[in-house]
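FAQ: What does the model actually see?

It sees only this:
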Amino acid sequence: MQRTKNLGRDLGLQVRMVFTMLLLTFVYLVFSFILFRVTHAGILLVVIPLGGLFFQYYFSDKIVLSSVGARIVTDREAPRLVGIVQRLAQQADVPMPRVAISQTPMPNAFATGRSPKHAVIVVTTGLLQQLSEPELAAVLGHEMTHIRNRDMVVMTMAGSFAAVAAWLTQWMFWFGPGLGGGYGGRRDNNNGAALVMLATVLVAIISHMLVLALSRYREYAADRGGALLTGQPEQLESALMRISGTMSRIPERDLRQAEPLSALFIAAPKRQIVFEFFSDHPTLEHRIARLQRLSQEMARS
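And it is asked to produce this:
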């Protein structure tokens, strides 16, 4: 299909995903070396991280769906929604993802899953109630682009690096720094504990900043891909402005509950993004500006 050919592959996103995963792997290996020198618990550094990553890879979609209270729906239950997703999947040349609905007034959507064959698109009841059908199609096109780009699994795995590092550190302090052979006296223990704590903080900061940068770029890429897929960037502009405007009226409790999954959503569950560098989403103004430039490019072609 012509639209599918126009989508192409976002080389910038592909390069950033590879770079992020390589750098995170290097950071984690350095952290593992430090932890091994302190604890000499080599088995922990192999079994636990691999087990944690395996669990994240295969069950992340189920964990995410459960955390937002989303339920898989069929075309009988939500014919309009499933019909739009089915049409976009055909246009994007990806397998038909499962569709789920989360009962919350916050207007939002996200895609999750370990691969296009196991993908799920989740929309909230707030989104379904507030968007017109063209706007809804634009949002779903954005999420379909995430599936096509395979960036949701990279985000899931990248985010798990810091979690695994923190988990290993908790194990060390829970069972004692002498686990697996340990090291010398109290002074060595204190120095070792301080070194591991410092390494954990650095891993957390580096991992977090890398994930934020990748998350912001992947939103730009999905905005562009979704606009090309539907051929209506102005509808995505309208949807983003409507979602952003409604977010300020959502109860603070609902926003806080959604914040752990902020990077997955099409719009950050926050009232306003002040400092983009420390956010997992670009500002609304920057996203709208890019969509308007894309609209002008499409009009000229």
